[in-house]
Design a protein that fits this description.
82 residues, alpha+beta, 33% helix, 2 helices
């Protein structure tokens, strides 16, 4: 694919917080949030060449969320299905 995708899924509040904390590359597109099965989901899309930047941003997000003991969210990179 020409782009890399990541999803952030969880309760609506924690997902919104995660998106706020996420330091994305300028070329990133944030799609959503969308409510599915009682959860909130955001899709982040970047050009394929910025995939490493996306991975770094997601790793930093998880470290910050963990250190602050924030409610969990599930992050998937290049999920098989949306």
């Amino acid at each position: 694919p020409a782009s890399r995708l990541a999803t952030i899924t969880g309760e609506p509040g924690p997902v919104d917080d995660a998106v706020t904390l996420l330091d994305l590359p300028e070329t990133a597109e944030v799609l959503g949030p969308v409510e599915t099965d009682g959860e909130s989901r955001v899709v982040v899309r970047v050009p394929r060449v910025r995939g490493a930047d996306l991975a770094r941003a997601l790793g930093q997000l998880q470290r910050v969320r963990s250190s602050r003991k924030l409610d969990p969210v599930r992050i998937q990179v290049d999920p098989y299905s949306l």
